[in-house]
Amino acid sequence: MGDDGRDRFQTSAGIPLAEIYDAESLAARRPPFDPARDLGRPGAFPFTRGIHPHMYRERPWTMRQYAGFGSATESNRRYKFLLASGQTGLSVAFDLPTQMGRDADHPLARGEVGRAGVSISSIEDMHALLDGLPLDRVSTSMTINATAATLLCLYLAVADERGIPRASLSGTVQNDILKEYIARGTYIYPPAPSLRLCADLFAFCAREVPRWNTISISGYHIREAGSDAVQEVAFTLADGIAYVEAARAAGLAVDAFGPRLSFFFNAHSNLLEEVAKFRAARRLWAEIMRGRFGAKDPKSQMLRFHAQTAGSTLTAADPLNNVARTTVEALAAILGGAQSIHTNGYDEALALPTEASARVALRTQQILAHESGVADVVDPLGGAYAIEALTSEIETRAAALIAEIDRRGGMLTAIAEGFPQREIERRALEHQRAVESGARVIVGVNRFTDGASEAPTLHRLDPGLAAAQIAALARLRRGRDEGRLRAALDHLRETARGTDNLLPPILDAVKARATLGEIADVFREVFGEYRPA
After folding, report:
1. What's the Cα-to-Cα distance from 70 to each of 18, 151, 227, 382, 445, rounded to whole Å?
2. pTM of the predicted protein model
3. Residue among 1, 39, 77 nearest 459 (CA)
4. Strand stretches in 247-301, DSSP E
5. Strands of 261-267's sheet in order across
6. If you ran DSSP here, which 8-state letter would residue 30 be given?
7. Phi-psi region of 47 (alpha: psi -120 to 50; beta: other; left: phi over 0)
8. Which contacts (CB < 8 Å, 24+ apart) does range 128-132 have?
9. How many helices (H) and strands (E) does the chain have?
10. What distance in Å separates the CA atoms of residue 102 and residue 466, rounded to the nearest whole number?
């Protein structure tokens, strides 16, 4: 037994590990493992082995390095650097004021402008962020939630003003507000109007931007908050169920928006558990979409996902060890069948990644893709006794947790009661106690701490950034047509008070040079702000 009283040989979710797995142990499961039902073929229901028949032999995963810091111009330079280094998709990080619907000149933005991501307050910032980037040839992921509809409209407005057809745009907007109430905290409005914004974005993109993924239902932040692998799957899919129900309540047919749903998972360092987790999530979602919601289109039943290596496993102590951690985690995502992957920089426990660490992170993916051979076989661990046993066990445990959420009245009710929050906190505390006791080994932190590497050179932000952003906002406000602006914001306010889709008036407002904060303030006026009990 370990120091925390638990068996040493178990996964991070507490699943006991047998010394050896074989056909008999799979047959002894209840229900017994059935290859025809549980395994299937790649590209066919229940998609356990992957959503495409040929997976990476036909097309490698998208290498989408997450980046954004300081000004839009600075971030644009980093995107061009990454694309020149072989990155195949953009992934935008926004600073906290942007995530919370505050302009760079708002008092609450002081000290946070450009720090956790790029500062975007207006269409002029978005023009600078996307300058010279081929929007019709590269997909863009934007990690944004409470203000997702506005950021997407800013992106579309730039494309419109550059003459790029909306039908040629591809990418993803995270747009997953429920996990903010559970795990992350960058919410603005109460859940009901927040879900309305999500559903309106679904409907608008189905008509106007057909190649855009309208939500990336995120388990990543749930895991970063301290959940285990089973909770990550269960709470993420339960959020997905809530979004499907909200879209159907808004009058959308499941097969009209189902193919554009996507997911975002965390890739942790327990290799076998993580591979099994991704496979179990795919199988569970296929069953949910077909059985619970009656989805007929196979694309509605597929769980397509982006994976990011775990920020919470990075250590500030001996940071070069993080290269090995990230490699194992990226390998888990590949063996689990991810559609796109971000690999963290080894210095991210200390600061934003430098160009050097970002290049190492990208090269890690490229080495795995082109030198390791793991992309040459579809689901190479499929059929392995241990992987199939863990896949089935995670599926069973996650399904039971989803059933408990259903019993409580669904995810909105469960969030209001604090159920997922408490479960994550409990698991996080157990993990921390195991680390502090030494029962869970963290190399370079609680064991093997001799001869630590020197601290790397860190990225430094421009101290004059906030003043420059505030000055740019002042120029924008002086130069815009106030009559057109007022009319656009008034129209947005009236639409918010009614039931029509909110995306068209948001788009009109950003084209009239309304700022992100001004649009968010209209919604604050109509919807109110959320305050947790």
Report:
1. 49, 17, 31, 44, 31
2. 0.91
3. 77
4. 261-267
5. 62-63, 340-342, 305-309, 261-267, 215-218
6. S
7. left
8. 128/71, 128/72, 128/73, 128/76, 129/72, 129/75, 129/76, 129/92, 130/76, 130/155, 130/158, 131/73, 131/76, 132/76, 132/80
9. 22, 10
10. 13
Contact (Cβ atoms closer than 8 angstroms) between residue 402 and residue 394 = no
Rounded to 5 degrees, what angle do the CA atoms 466, 472, 477 make?
125
- The phi and psi torsions of 112 (rounded to 5 degrees) equal -120, -5
Residue with tokens 């209840």: 30
Phi and psi at 94, nearest 5°, equal -110, 150
Collapsing DSSP states into helix, strand and coil, what is residue 4?
A: coil
b/e for 315-346, b at 16 or more Cβ within 10 A? beebbebbbebbbbbbbbbbbbbbbbbbbbbb
Q: What DSSP string describes 412-441?
A: HHHHHHTHHHHHHHHHHHHHHHHHHHTSS-
Question: What is residue 12's three-state secondary structure?
Answer: coil
Residue 141, SS3 per DSSP: strand
Contacts 24+ apart (CB under 8 A), 160-164: 160/511, 161/123, 161/127, 161/511, 162/135, 164/135, 164/136
**pLDDT, tens only, 133-181:** 999 999 999 999 999 999 999 999 999 999 999 999 999 999 999 999 9
- The average pLDDT across 36-55 equals 92
Question: Hunting for tokens 């392995």 — which residue is that?
Answer: 384
CA-to-CA separations, 223 to 177, 378, 392, in angstroms, rounded: 16, 27, 20
Reported confidence tier of residue 453, pLDDT bands at 50, 70, 90: low
Contacts by 30-36, CB closer than 8 A, 24 or more apart: 33/388, 33/389, 33/392, 35/383
* Terminal CA-CA length for the chain: 40
Q: Prior bond to 46 cis, omega within 30?
A: yes
In 100-212, which residue ranges form alpha helices assigned H by DSSP? 123-129, 148-161, 178-179, 191-208
Place of tokens 């998972």: 265
Q: Which two tokens stand for residue 481?
A: 């047509």
Cβ atoms of residues 156 and 209 within 8 Å: yes
Residue-wise pLDDT for 344-366, tens only, equals 999 999 988 888 999 999 999 99
